[in-house]
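Look over this today:
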Amino acid sequence: MPRPPAQIPDLWPSPLPPRDDGRGAPQAIVDLVLDALDRATLHPGDRLPSSRALAVHLEVPRGVVTVAYDTLAAMGVARTVPGSGTTIAEGSDGLARALLSPGPTVPPSPPPARPVISLEPGLPDVALIDERRWRRSWRHATRLTAPADLDARIAELRAVLAAQLRRSRAVVCASSDIRLFPGVNPALRTIADWFGAPIAMEDPGYRRAFDAFRATGNRVVSVPVDDEGLVVDRLPDRRCLVYVTPAHQYPTGVRMSMSRRLALLRWARGTGGLVLEDDYDGEFSYDVAPLPALHRLDPESVVYIGTASKALSPLLRIAWAVLPERCRELPNAGNGSGAGVDGTAATMLAHFISSGGWDNHIARAGRTYGARRAAVRRALALHVPDAHVIGVEAGLHLTVDLGSPDALAAVLDNLEDHGYRASTVAAHALQDLGSHDRDPRERAGLLVSYAVIPETRADTIIRLLAPR
C-alpha cells in the first residue's frame, strides 16, 4: 500500500528559491527530490504531493511541477499512475546516491605549453610569397590535361632552370646537364653512390648532408673551416668527393675567399676529385657583390646543386644538380631525370619561374630579409657590442660569437625561458670539439636566423643575448 504523501513542510521550501545556474525551476524541484532521497528523508514507495498542491506551496505555475514530475519519471526515480498520483520508484535511493556522489578526482589539465619560436636557420618566411602569382602557377599546373606525361613536365622545368641559372647565378649549362631530385639529400646520396670515393666535408658542416653521405658506406673525412672557408690544404691528396657551401658556409656563414676557390679547383683538377657546390641560399646577398659560383670558374670540376627550399618553400621538395660532362653517366632511377619528383610541382615551379614570379619573389624577399638583417645587426651593436658577428654578407642567418661556452649556455637558457629555440655552431661539429685545430670560437657560436625576425621584434629578441 502506498505510503502517504511526503509532507510539504518537511521537504519543500516556500517559495521555491531561484537558481543562479540558469537550469530553471523544474530542475530545482528534481534536485530537491534527489537530495531528499540521498539524505534518506524520502524513500522508495513515498507518494509525492499532487502537482496542484505543490505548485501552490512553491508559488510556481502548475506546469513547472508537471515538467519536474515528468523528468523524474523519465529518470526512473518516480512512477506516475493516472488517478493514483506520483510515487517514488523502488531503487531510486541508490540511483540518487550515485548521481550525487562525487566522481573520480580528475587532475586539472596542465596549462597549454607556450609555443616555441625557432630562431634556427633553415626555413624561409613563406608569408613573403606573392599569393596571387603562387596560386596562378598552381592552377596552371593542375589544369593540364591528365594524365600529363611526367617526362614532359621534367623536361620543361630543366629548360626553364637552365635559363634561370644562367641569368641569376652565371651558371652556364644546357637543360640536358640538369638532373632533378626530390630534395638535396637524395641528390647527394645519388652522386656519392655513383662517384664511389671518400667524401670530404666542411667541419663544422651541414649535419644532414653528413648523415646522407655516411648512409652510402663511403668514408667521410672532416676538413676544418676558417675565416676564408674550407682549408684546402687539409684535403686528402687523392681522388675524392668534396662537399662545400662556398656562398655562405653552413653553419658559420663565412664566404669562401677567391684564393680558396681557386685553390680548391686546382686540387680537383690535380687529383681527379669532384666538388659538390651546395648553393642553398645563394640568391640572397647584401652590401657586397656575390662571388661567382664555383661552377662558373670550372664547370668540369664542379657539380652545382640548387634548391627551391630556401628561396620559396621546402614543401616543394625539388632540387637540381648541374652535372659536368664526366658525370653524364649518372644513372636515372626513374622517368626522365627526375626520379621521385612530383610532376605537378615541377610544372608549377617551371611556370612560376618563366612567368616572372621567381625573380619578383627574390627581389621582394631580398629587400625584406635585408631590412631584418639590418635591424638585427643594430640590436646586436646596442645590446651585445663585444660579440663578434660572422656571415652577414649573404644568406638568411648569421653567427654570433659570444666569447665563451659559459656565455653561450647562459644565452641559450635565457632564450628558452622566453620561448625561443636556437642552434649553435658546436651542434654542427662533425668531430669532437677538442680535436685538431678546432677554432675556439666554435664553442661559443650562436646561430640566428633573421629570416623569421620581423624588424619590430629584432630589439626585443636580441636583447635576450645580452650578458646578465
